[in-house]
Amino acid sequence: MQYRELGKTGIKVSVVGFGALPIQRIDEKIAVEVLHKAFDLGMNFLDTGFRYSDSEYKVGLALKGRREGITVATKSPARDKKGMAEHIQISLKRLGTDYIDLYQLHNVKDMENLDKVLAPGGALEALKDAQKEGLIKHIGISSHRKETLFVAMKQGFVDTIQVPFNAVETDEIEELLDLAEETNTGVIVMKPLAGGAFNNPTAALKFILKHRISIVIPGMDSLEQVIANAQVGTMETTLTEEEQKSLDIDTAQLGAGFCRRCEYCLPCPMEINIPQIFIWESYVDRYNLPEFARLRYQSSSKGVDNCIDCGKCESKCPYELPIRKMLARAGEKLSQK
């Protein structure tokens, strides 16, 4: 496994880290096995979140007896001091640790939210207090909006930024990396596989690692994924002609308006599994398996016709996708006989 400096933190992190959002979907025993495998293969950084249901708790189970040498990052959506202070204490308890290496402001999606964080009585005050008390070591921010990350780095209150970046999402990335280099800010890359949209995950990760980033954190929930992703961390980053061709085909097909399966849109009040419906749609559009996709969709209990057009999913989507229109389109394809 190769390692890089995480900006001004001075921490050396594996170039491929563990994105722990997906372990919500697996039971405790398997989650611990998957995380231990990641540690054994040299992944020494893991990223979880306060809002990731039981992910922090499962990470805590895996850390028992393995805490030393592992950089633990989590994050909170709290925007005020009181809420952030409470979340830090809960995260510490769930993770079963006395300190957290990196605590991040989660999904600061615009300047309005950033202003709340920075205002008197805002979440940043709680993070700085926790840092003084030794409860957290470093402060970071995650956002899907690069303009927010530019401001955060320029103001200098963060040690790291977490940003979506992959072969499809490349807008302003070089400018962002220039500023990160200038301010010695660690760059953590999320959504590297665009929610599983790339046909060649190895190529997708190599594409990112050839850039000036600190670490890439694909989400994982199986031993097979851990082994495959850890292997990329040992490779040269130069893409083969075949790998580049695969990425070119995928980026041409995907465009920008597609679901990354981050699951922020969930839970749906009508219990519609929105990301799953878009996965089934991809089997129709991209893999030429319409019968398989329609059978799966039509056997599900909650289809698109259950949508009440409340728009809650769209208000939570970090990419501001027109989810209701997309669901209607998918439902039309998947309901055909």
List keywords for this structure.
TIM Barrel; eight-stranded parallel beta sheet; two-stranded antiparallel sheet; globular
Word description of this protein:
- The chain has 337 residues and is an alpha/beta fold.
- An eight-stranded parallel β-sheet has the order 3-4-5-6-7-8-9-10, covered by helices on one side. It has a two-stranded antiparallel sheet with strand order 1-2.
- Helix 7 links the parallel strand 8 and strand 9.
- The longest helix has 15 residues.
- The model has no long low-confidence stretch (mean pLDDT 94).
What topology emerges from the helices and strands here?
Layout lengths: L2 E3 L6 E3 L3 E2 L8 H13 L4 E3 L7 H9 L7 E6 L4 H15 L4 E6 L5 H8 L4 H10 L3 E7 L3 H10 L4 E5 L8 H11 L2 E5 L10 H9 L5 E2 L6 H10 L8 H14 L19 H12 L4 H9 L13 H5 L6 H12 L3
